[in-house]
Specification:
Order of helices and strands: HEEHHHEHE
CATH topology: Rossmann fold
Number of strands: 4
CATH architecture: 3-Layer(aba) Sandwich
Helix content: 25-40%
């Protein structure tokens, strides 16, 4: 049985650190005119709703993305992914790494995601 549910922890400072590095890395790697493959195990959801009861219960996003997002300038790849996610899914949307990767890849690149937790696959 898999009991961990990332929705309780989405948007925390560790997420911000990981996702900002991912967005920057993909931006850098896609500058080269060569296709790439992104492979992720433990992918989780593409989008988290930070207004969901589970996210509100822990309040981890308040000490993570809510404080950190103003640090990223508009041209930073992570800020761009945040803005794209919110434009498509609403102001409380927080992009998980599958969506950050999907938005950062180009036509011709490949995306491979794996997740064991059935509730996390959407």
């Amino acid at each position: 049985m898999l009991s961990y549910q990332h929705l309780y922890h989405a948007g925390n400072l560790a997420d911000v650190h990981k996702h900002s590095a991912l967005a920057w890395m993909l931006d850098y790697l896609t500058r080269k005119d060569k296709p790439l493959s992104y492979i992720e195990t433990h992918a989780g959801r593409g989008v988290y709703d930070l207004s969901a009861p589970e996210a509100v219960k822990t309040g981890e996003a308040a000490a993570g993305i809510a404080l950190a997002e103003s640090v990223f300038p508009p041209d930073h790849p992570y800020r761009q992914r945040l803005d794209e996610a919110r434009a498509g899914y609403g102001p409380q949307a927080y992009p998980g790494s599958p969506l950050i990767a999907a938005l950062g890849l180009r036509e011709g690149d490949t995306l491979h995601l794996a997740e064991l937790h059935r509730q996390e696959v959407a």
